[in-house]
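cron nightly-structures :: item 1 of 1
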Amino acid sequence: IDDEMRSILDGVAHVMRAEGALVDDAARPDIDVHAAWAEGTRLISAALAVGDEADVSANTATLTHHQWHLADRRRASRRLAWDAFFHDFDVVLCPVTALAPFEHLHDGTWDSRMIEVNGRPQRYVHLEAWPALIGSVLLPSTSTPVGRTGGGLPIGMQVVAPYLHDHTAIAVAGMITELIGGYEPPPVVG
């Protein structure tokens, strides 16, 4: 993720530690994050491809029934790994996406557009990484504002809880809001 954003998110962890929370920066579920992201994106894209026959045949994101079942089986395995992870941890705090808001890109397609993260070009689809990693395994997530970049752009953090523990994600996001200060209206432009 963007270095400036990482610094803001690390600051949230520091404040939470100071308030008595146990924060483990090294804890990870036992999954291949890159494979989970890629397959999660495919499953979400396939779900969004539902439509009439013309829509589906024009969409390259569709999966065959067999492919979907194999991917769903692997997703079930990842869900079990997340469940095991949440035996030791209440929530996961992670970015919403790879960088702060940026000017909308109109040129090219979703697959051909590029963004820059820490001075390195990245594919635009990398913006899907964090949401796909979390959403594809049906974990509840609440996004909460945690700061602004030096240029005044808002930064959010996902609070991810175990499956069906939506209230936990919401409650911890509320606690973070109280500690950090929460939403601030953007500056007036013009």
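cron nightly-structures :: done
The chain is about 45% helix and 15% strand.
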